[in-house]
Amino acid sequence: MILVVSPDHAPYVQQQLQSCYAIGHVCGLNSRSSRVEISNVDHLFSQFHFNASLVHRKRVNVGILISGSGSNMARLIHESRRRNSHCHVSVVIANKIGVLGLEVARELGVEAVVIPHGNSRPEFERKITKELEERGVELICLAGFMRVLTAEFVNRWREKVINIHPSLLPSFKGAQAVPLALEAGVKITGCTVHLLRKISTLEKFLDKNRWR
């Protein structure tokens, strides 16, 4: 983004922006010159170690899978709309009809799809993959998604599935993580964000948050 402001206002505008550079000034138009002329842009950007290609940075296309109220989903959507975000949420998929998360997603302007899990896990996952592929999804986030995924699905989306688990893994795995932590009487608990690589092993933690 390029802003054109009065020289008198330039110092104030620069103070209001997190990061900006003065790259030139506006000159009077010569009747014999072209209407618009830009020169030395690459040289100017190089002085500030700025990569001009970042202006057209492509955001990662994200699909979110949910099973309930979508509280984590809503936070992810809000964060994706921050100016410095690297992602865009294009679709939310729920495995249950009528869950609150579907309504929340639609209110936030995100397409919401219901795919009941039924009795066939492979067929259920094929339908999910079809919906994701049709929208060009590059990264899947499991935000309160209460279904175990098959190895075939994980392999199809290898290194592209992120899970939010309500414990400090490897402690308290599974759907009852919070009750198990309370029953154990631990003084510190939290949540873990990890890449889902295999069903039996969580090979790479991305982040952990702790609280007492």
UniProtKB/TrEMBL annotation:
This protein's UniProt keywords: Purine biosynthesis, Transferase
Family matches, as Gene3D superfamilies: Formyl transferase, N-terminal domain
Domain Formyl transferase N-terminal: 61-196
Pathway assigned to this chain's UniProt record: Purine metabolism; IMP biosynthesis via de novo pathway; N(2)-formyl-N(1)-(5-phospho-D-ribosyl)glycinamide from N(1)-(5-phospho-D-ribosyl)glycinamide (10-formyl THF route): step 1/1
Biological process according to GO: 'de novo' IMP biosynthetic process
Record-level Gene Ontology MF annotations: phosphoribosylglycinamide formyltransferase activity
Entry's Gene Ontology cellular component terms: cytoplasm
Pfam families for the chain: Formyl_trans_N
EC number(s) given by UniProt: 2.1.2.2
Highest rank taxon of the organism: Eukaryota
PANTHER family, alphabetized: PHOSPHORIBOSYLGLYCINAMIDE FORMYLTRANSFERASE
Protein name in UniProt: phosphoribosylglycinamide formyltransferase 1
Species of provenance: Ditylenchus dipsaci
Source lineage: Eukaryota, Metazoa, Ecdysozoa, Nematoda, Chromadorea
